[in-house]
Amino acid sequence: MRHVGQSKWGLVGTYAFLIIAAAIAVFPLLWVVLSSFKTSEELARSPLQLFSLEPTLEHYRKVIGEIGFLGNLRNSLMLAGASTLITVLISLLGAYGVVRFFPRVGRQLTKILIGTYMFPPILLAIPYTVTMVKLGLMNSYAGLVIAYLSFSIPYAIWMLIGFFQTVPVGIEEAAAVDGASRFRVFWQISVPIILPGIVATAVYTFINTFNEFLYALLFITESDKMPVAVGLYSLQGSEVLDWGAMMAASVIVIVPSVIFFMAIQRYIAAGLSEGSVK
User: Fold this and answer.
1) Which of 114, 161, 181, 226 has the fewest Cβ atoms within 10 Å of its own Cβ atom?
2) Domain count, the chain
3) Are residues 51 and 23 in the same domain?
4) Is 257 strand, coil or helix?
5) Where does the ABC transmembrane type-1 domain lie (predicted)?
């Protein structure tokens, strides 16, 4: 009985700790959402006050109607979607080729691929900018997507190699004996098996490209082409920062992302657990 009581109190303590940790993690997001409904006077007078005495939608009207922030959001979704789609397609072929055709050099190759992340983005800013100017891709989405692919593809290949290593070779050999081509084995046998891993890789790539700021700031100069990260940055005034507009724009960006992430989190968890088997 004593042991059962200790286990019960230990479980209560664990849940209490997790609830407190979750509340601390959620508080900044909750504060941003509630602050977006405050008037400019309330934000200036009592910024730490959670609830507004006079809730208003003036900041949302300004961000959507006057600033056109939804256009920036659309640009980011388009850039992140295109980059993610191209990255996943290329990385699937690359990772499968490494695992099935070059297994001996695969380990060294993965080290080289992940080694590309040793270089901070700011270090490559000038070479990338010079290259895009010479190619005539400045202020274009094509140049920005190419820059994103150079960072996302190596990491995506590295992630997918671990997932393909979990696919039993016997299943592919049985399909080949039945007359399936190599591409059919890849597309109809291996890819469905690692689908959770593909989802996890796609989500990781999408989030990274969606939140990217440096190259978007360097390559895009027209306001109607700016992605959301640069759009948020442009809300800063030279002398006065419009906190209400910043809060509303942040909610427009963050809340849909949180809802999307919560909806697919089970696929991400399944993908990460499968990829960690080897």
Assistant:
1) 181
2) 2
3) yes
4) helix
5) 73-264
Strand partners, 236: 241
Identify the domain containing residue 24 by its residue range: 1-55
Query: Do 51 and 176 have their domain in common?
Result: no
In this structure, how many other beta carbons lie within 10 angstroms of the beta carbon of residue 82? 17
* Closest residue by Cα to residue 224 from 69, 56, 52, 59: 69
DSSP 8-state code for residue 197:
H
> Would you say the C-alpha torsion 126, 129, 131, 133 has a positive or negative sign?
negative
Same domain membership, residue 96 and residue 197: yes
Residue ranges in the chain whose pLDDT is less than 70: 1-6, 106-107, 113-114, 116, 237-240, 256, 267-278
What is d(CA 140, CA 157) in angstroms, rounded to the nearest whole number? 26
Three-state secondary structure string covering 41-109: HHHHHCCCCCCCCCCCCHHHHHHHHHCCHHHHHHHHHHHHHHHHHHHHHHHHHHHHHHHHHCHHHHHHH
CB 271 within 8 A of CB 197: yes
Among 116, 97, 246, CA closest to 183:
97
